[in-house]
Amino acid sequence: MGKNYIDIENDRGETLRYRKHVNGRGLVANGAKVHPTACVEAGAYVEPGVQIAAGAFIGRGAWIESDVVVGPKARIAPHAHIMSKAQLGPGAQIGVRTQVGEGAKVAGGSLIGDDQTIGDGERVATDRRGLRLAA
For the whole model, what pTM was predicted? Predict the structure, then answer.
């Protein structure tokens, strides 16, 4: 039986330990909290301090930086990048290769399409078609 974790050295020369999440086999750093009903697909990285709620989905190759909060049933598509301290509300959907900036907030139920960029600190809310709502 193989080991259920991997050690990776970061840019500062620190070694971080990641465990393979039971639902999807994605890599979750020590200090991150991922609900057992969430799915973190293989090839996804979840950094320390992240909180992922029940029923959330993190696609292959997605990178969730430190201190991000992912709400219940939120969906992050493959290869998306969610930067530090961002918050995704319940049921928010983030498209393929989309980047959510540091400290940005995506309202619950929002649909952010593929290849989009949400700026640092930006607050975004959309309707079900992905059209942005007035702040």
Answer: 0.91
